[in-house]
Structures are given as structure tokens and as C-alpha cells.
Amino acid sequence: MKASRVILEALKREGVEVIFGYPGGQIMPLYDALYDFDIKHILARHEQGAGHAADGYARASGKVGVCFATSGPGATNLVTPIANAYMDSVPMVAITGQVKRAAIGLDSFQEADITGITLPVVKHSYLVTSPEDLPRIIHEAFHIAATGRPGPVLIDIPVDVTMEDMDYDPQAAVKLDLPGYRPTIKGHPKQVKEAARVIAEAERPLIYAGGGIISANASEELRELALYGHIPVATTLTGKGCFPEDHELSMGMLGMHGTQYANYAMSHADIVLAIGVRFDDRVTGNLAAFAPRARFIHVDVDPAEISKNVAPIIPIVGDAKRVLDALVPELKKHELSPERHLPWMVQVEEWKRKHPLVVPTSEGGEIMPEYVVRKIWEVTRGQAVIATEVGQNQMWAAQHYLALRPRQFITSGGLGTMGFGFPAAIGAQVARPDATVIDIAGDGSFQMTIQELSTAVQYRLPVKVCILNNRCLGMVRQWQQLFWEGRYSESCFEHQPDFVKVAEAYGAQGFRATRTDEVEEVLRVALATDQPAVIDFQVKPDANVYPMIPAGGTIEDLLEGDL
Questions:
Q1: Which of 49, 152, 205, 459 could share a disulfide with 423, CB 3.0–4.6 Å?
Q2: Domains in the chain and their CATH numbers?
């Protein structure tokens, strides 16, 4: 059969049910073969949208996301989604078309060295030069993308390779022989045992949990550990949902815009169990002064993360689920009592009581963005799948929409990609067709991928976009106000579209709220429709995100704003 058909057969063997993509000249044979296949394809309106949708699909489903693009600009438009998936450890396979083998290196029409361009932001990549290698390469790519620390894998296929005939037995086993790729899954037993002893003896323990918990499907094990040990749990941005945020032991998100009580707990803890985290700068701030009283136990499947930023006293390389599976029985041998660190828990509760996250009021009566997020949580009863854009909208969503389960809060963490949220929400809706999926957006971010409204309408994906419209690049404006003497250089929009009319022009529903008393009713009406919808919440333009620890700062530098 044609190699193009072999590619699709191999994808089916990997369980691929949906592909997000955008066709073009050098990937045309693959799209021609797709015409006869029962794999669902979602035609995005930009390759960036296809890549972010595959990312959102992967985060919402736990499966490998797949996207297609043609050569040259099609492939380079995937660079941002690939880098985004790499930074947040999302399993994704991107398949790009390439010019003919004989034309590579000749500056041919729509040629780009995409394997070279993406080298720093992929887990692995392939340039296919022989059709006979395709089955092996595709199965390797999925194995690499989904195992160990997940990440994106790129497969670049010259157009003449896809057009060749080849022998293929779909039932033949493909042997995965990757001698240089052997992720460590099981934590060292002695290290696990020592970690249990240190946790049992801690007076002020804290769990610091990240996206690695969600990737490893280890949330139940984390919950068992926290409840048995009666240990507070703080999460990273991408770890939201790995522990239910309505639980009494939850400290919410920590870091630059995290809860005050989570940051206070981190700065006073004596033992921190860090699982599936990488100690990124948005959490640590000034590394030299980060958690000055704490000793760390660091669990991560990627050995490169151990001691990269913070040196632990007990490093454990392994899959979070497997390590926690071993750690909980070891901890239970110590027969812990919740009263063993009662003063610590009393202190934690006092911090929570004194420094709650609140919704500020506006003297001018404008809608406060925090109020919108709280109302979204109330109206959806905390059950919606939330995607976010990047900026103030992202931080307000992280603070005020409590994530109750894994894969419920989908956001761009490491790369901070504006325009991510809406296509990611589309991918999440494809993965979870029965779920209420909401993109909490900024007016700036949403306009970066607004054309994907056409995609949502075409495929009847009832994604709801809630724009916290402050008529500016809010986070840029906030930093300019706080750290650049109020010099608002190119951060405010002198012209904005009518988002209601834009939504209607695309065939979606459009709504607007300009007063606080309109918020709930508009939300309920929009959520009741089975169509894609955009809600333009015109919020207070100069509202800032607080609390805030300035970049490179410490808890001593925390800004509370007007709270």
C-alpha cells in the first residue's frame, strides 16, 4: 500500500481517534489517504490552533495529542505549540510534510528545516528518509511521547516518501529497540524508606505537588498520602486539580500570584515533599532565599530536574504514581497521628483565616474580574473543564476557580503562551464531548486565535469563551504601573472589536455584561445554549492581580494591593 496509508494504519494501531491539522502541498498525500479513513480530523483555521488543540486534547484526555501540518510555514506555525507542550510535559506527536528528499537543502519552495528549528523544544524528532521506517518510527514516537516525562515528538516526512508503495502487515509486531531510552519508573526503595522516616519526623511538613502528579495519574495516591499524614498540599499552576482545592488540607496554588497562606507555609515548612515539580522561577522567586527553613525530598521522573534548581536531601527518580505507591505503605509503618504536628496545623489555619483570597469591590461599580471567575465556579458548581489564556485572566482563574479533579484546569504554564486557551478548549471539548468547557480569556489573548471560532462552529463544539475585557494587555499594564513608573507604553487598546458581533459573524452566540448584576444571568443563558458562545465581560480596566510577589522576590516583598 501507499506509505501515506501506512502512516494512518499505524496511527490507528496507536489508538488515535482524532487529528487536528491544516493541509498543504507537501502533506497532500497523507490527507488524500485520510479521505478513506475513519479517523476524525478537526480542520483548524491556523496551524497554531491545531497544535494547541492537540495539546488541550492531550491534557483533557490523558492520551497523546496528534496534529498535522504541511512543510515550510505550516511546520513553523507549529513551533509555538510544540514548545508549549515541551515546557509543560504534554504528550504530543506532530507530523509535518516536507519537500522531496532530493529537494532538501536547496531552499526549495516551502522548505524549512523543521527538525533543526524545533531541536531545543522536542523530546525527540525524526526526518523520515525511507518508507519502510515509518511503522517503527510512528510507534517509537508514541512510546517516547507518552512514557517517562511526557513531551512532544516531531515526525517530518518528505512528500515523495508518503507517495511510495511499500509492504505492510498491520498485524506484525513492531519491536521497540531504544537502548538509549530507559526511563526510571520505580523509585529506589532505600530512598523511599528514608523519605518516609523524614516525613514522619517532620514538625512542619508540606507537600508541593505539580503537573507530574497529573501526568502520572497519581492523584489518588497523593490524596491517600496527604490524608494519612495530615499534610497540607500546595500546588503549582499546572498541578491544579491534582488535589481537590476545596479540601481542608488544600493550600491552593503557590508562587508569584499564589495564595498568601501557601507561600507562608512554604517559607516556614521544615520538610517539603516536592512531587512532579521543577522548582520554576514563578514559584521560587529568589532561589537563594526560597523556603529558608526547609529541607526537600524531590520526586521526579526526569533525573535532569533533580538538583537543577534546589538540592534535595533525598532525591527520588521515578514515576510519581509508583513512588507514592511505595511511599504510603512505608509511611504507615510509622503509625502517624494527626496530632503529632498540631501547632503547625493551627498555624496553617490561622494563615488561611487571616489571608483569604477575596473579591475586591469597585467604587465605580464596574465588574470585578475576580467576581466573574467566582460566578463561573458557582454556576458550574465547580464541575467545568477550564482552559485559560495567559496574563491576568489566567491568574484570576487559577486563584478563584477551584479545581476539584485532575485534567480539569488546562493552561499554558512554562511558556506562557497567549492565544493558547481557546484552541486548547476546543481540543478539550473534543476529548470530553459531554463536559462543560470554558475558556477564561483576556481580550488580548483571545484575539490571537479568535479565528478558531469558525472551527468550533463547524464541528458544533459548544465551547464557551468568557472574556475578562479590560481593554488592555492587563498583566503588561500592571507591571508598568507597579515597576515602570506608570509609563503605559503600548499596553492599552485604543480600538477593540465588538466581540458580540464577531461571535455572531462566525455563527456563534454572543453576549455582553457591563454591570455586576448582569453577570450571573448572562452566564446562565450562555451556558444553557448548545452552541459555541462568547461572553464579553467588560471589567474594571485597572484591576490588578493580588497578592503578588515581584519577580525574583521573596515572601517579604509580597504586595497585597488594596485587599
A1: 49
A2: 3-163 (3.40.50.970), 189-354 (3.40.50.1220), 369-546 (3.40.50.970)
